[in-house]
Amino acid sequence: MNEILTNEEIDTLLQMFRSEGGAIENEPMPRGAPSVAAPTEDGRVVSPMDLLKPNRLGREQLRGLERYFESAGKLLSATIGDKLRLETRCDCVAVEQVRFGNWLDQLPGPVAIYVVNMEPFKLPVLFTASTSLLYGAVDRILGGSGKVSKVPKDFTIAEHTVAEALVGPCLDRICESLAEVVPLKWSFLNRFCNPSMAQILPTQDVVLSIYFQATGDFLMGDLRMVIPFASIEPILDRLGRDSVVRHEPGAMRAKLGHTVRSMPIDVAVELGGANIRLRQLMELQPGDVIPLTTRIGQPASVPVMGKPKFTGHIGRIGNRFGVQVADVMGD
């Protein structure tokens, strides 16, 4: 075994050895291990277990992070489309915890890699973009069509500078989507296209891997981000929470009442009503009288926002009509 076990993994291993007769079942299989569990001499069935599988983040925490990065994907769609003046869609297709060494092995190439400092994270973050996507974006930003037939293996300093006009706003949108969890402020530390230079962490360290896929009229590529687990460990208690704050019934009554007190309300006075036929309505002439159902002296209805709320008596206040509330109608 080339990798070093963490204290948590060692404790898990010792706990297994302390247990009496406990079969190890339903655990993930390591690479190269047989798919069929092998029986022992005493008849117990023991399944191989990969002690190095990352399990730092719980299911609810991962789901919480997925929601934040799905929101980031929508923001990235608008940002990339605006910068490149193209109809573009960016989706978050995966959020997972992996070993940093495994992530490097699976990193597709060629890619442009940015080492980013994100305060208050203690360790740097990696942000990568497919060179085909980024080089097409550079051509588009410089006034070209964005359709490139040949992509260089590396970028010049000038091309990197232009590319940052897209990468920078993308990092802004990701930080914006995580602002509810932790406010982030980013800055570039380094940039290169050689994956062998991206060894910023020990290979056995656990990282959070986020994978975005951008598609457009003729541009297509990946945006990936790696955040060390040690950086997000201090904020784990904020992840996986329901974004909707729940209160006890009636807890917001006072605040809601204070908020709605200044809202404008339409109040009317109905003197009465009548039912006539359409033929009679069409034959009405100036001077005709329509008898109402309300008798003289009977209180008029006072609807609020179209619904009857009070009854009152019509009167006069100076040279204006007024209504005196006589009764409050029930619900």
Outline: elongated
Number of strands: 11
- CATH topology label of one domain: Chemotaxis protein chec
What is the ordering of alpha helices and beta strands? HEEHEHEEHHEEEHHHEEE
Helix content: 25-40%
CATH architecture verdict of one domain: 3-Layer(aba) Sandwich
Q: In what order do the strands lie side by side in the largest sheet?
A: 3-7-8-5-4-6
* Content-based structural category: alpha+beta
Q: What is the strand content?
A: 15-25%
Q: What is the mean pLDDT?
A: 83
C-alpha Rg (nearest Å): 34 Å
Please summarize the sheet with the most strands.
6 strands, antiparallel
Account of the 3D structure:
By secondary structure, the protein is of the alpha+beta class. Among the domains are: 59-238, 3-Layer(aba) Sandwich (Chemotaxis protein chec); 297-331, no CATH class. The chain is built from eight helices and eleven strands. It has helices spanning 7-18, 59-84, 100-105, 131-141, 157-177, 229-232, 253-260, 278-282; strands at residues 38-39, 45-46, 89-99, 111-119, 125-130, 185-192, 206-215, 220-228, 300-304, 307-317, 320-328. The strands form three sheets. The chain has a six-stranded antiparallel beta sheet. Strands 9-10-11 form a three-stranded antiparallel beta sheet, with no helix packed on it. The longest helix is centred in the N-terminal third of the chain and has 26 residues, at 59-84. The protein is elongated, with a radius of gyration of 34 Å. The model is unreliable at 20-35 (pLDDT under 50).
